[in-house]
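Subject: Protein record for review, amino acid sequence with backbone structure tokens
How to read it: Take the token row as a discrete description of the fold.
Enclosed: The protein record, placed directly beneath this head.
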Amino acid sequence: MLVIVAPGQGAQTPGFLAPWLELPGVTERLSAWSEIVELDLIHFGTDADADEIRDTAVAQPLLVAASLAAAQALGAAPDILAGHSVGEFAAAALAGVLTPEQALALVRERGRAMAEAAAVTETGMTAVLGGTDVLETLDKHGLTPANNNGAGQVVAGGTLDQLAALKEEPPTRARLIPLSVAGAFHTVHMAPAVERLRAAAAETQPGDPAVTLLSNSDGQAVAGGAEFVERMINQVSNPVRWDLCMETMASLGVDRMIELLPGGTLTGLAKRGLRGVQTVALKTPDDLDAAKELVK
């Protein structure tokens, strides 16, 4: 049972797209998608620095475009698809719920709306690794467990003052890693972005997924395309339950996972939370051969 997963915001690094432009058709595809998202994806994926691609309005379209380009280069037909946060838009396109063009147009609006929401209050996110009293400590500081990633990782979202208080008084035996994101995504701070994304999606006619497609809301497979899109809209201000997605993968018998570009985060979680599952993370085109072997 093969699952293909698409990473979320924070996975991007400067220049990560550069080697992929050597593959046939990738430059042309990214140029066409640049017109849809009204950004120069090639520039941001090759020449831009870390601060430029940290911008939410840039990072989200860039990540979805990268995942879609890598998926087309791979050419694999998975049994299951899932995406983490904004990665759900890539998964939806690969499942046939949206066209790539529809997914990118919606992600353009999502990124802009979330960037505007993040500008209202200074907020951020911190990964909490391990710890014995994590949820209680987050609640004490007024923080939201915005991403429950499983494998002992919870991402806290909230104001910078709340995150500073967490640093001063962390959960017992936990390690904290501040994330390179521009706001507290999947928290109440993103509520203004929800209706804007819903308005942008109003004219879209989703198709039903052609393969099993898991939702970040509760980790369950969603059979209806319209329901999946509505879940993606609401997910902007609701926590991501990747832990439940991995539980469903395990229950369905997943034994192989390929993480699309820029891979590494989700396969890392799988190595701890889905022990025994073979994984390949697509980082450069050199990883395609190993991924194709996993498909066989």
